[in-house]
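Please think about what follows:
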Amino acid sequence: MSVGPLPEPPADLGLNPRTLSGPCWRIHRTDREALFFGNKKQENRFDDSNGSFGVLYAGISREAAVVETVLRVPHGGVVTTAQLEGRSMARIEFSSPLRVVALHGAEFGALHLDTRICSTEDYGICQRWSRAIHNHAVQPDGIIYQSRHNSDLLCLALFDRVATKLAAHPQFATLLDNGFRAELVAILDRYNIALIDSST
């Protein structure tokens, strides 16, 4: 049986946000603050389709943060240390619980969606859903969704309206920090990706 295209968000979109207490983990460019809400290029899955609000991406776990960033790097089974240079990790704490719309599990059916919203290469439809969720009367703080690369892992797309509730705590100045490198290698091993030292 053929599967039709993902539906556009309906005008009568019904949302029932869940409460999330945190923390979450964010890998970010070292030359930017950890709390960075991008909104100009509209190049990520749940960016606003009109670029009028910003979105911060994070993982519910360190592994989710790694998977959503490092596995996006062209690798062919190999990631080099050069590809990871200039990336840091921070723990993000919430001053009060966030209200997020779930795009995973049973909520797919409730919204008449399926897992493709988290994996499709057509970011346009994802961004239109993000805009509809952001603009909804219940004013959610963001979206919690399953990782494209591992459906057991959950990630966050937080809207910039929640910026004052977030506090970033630097964890590793670089992903290659000795305090994180062994964990990074173990995560990459789970996905059959080797870390190669570019300096050798």
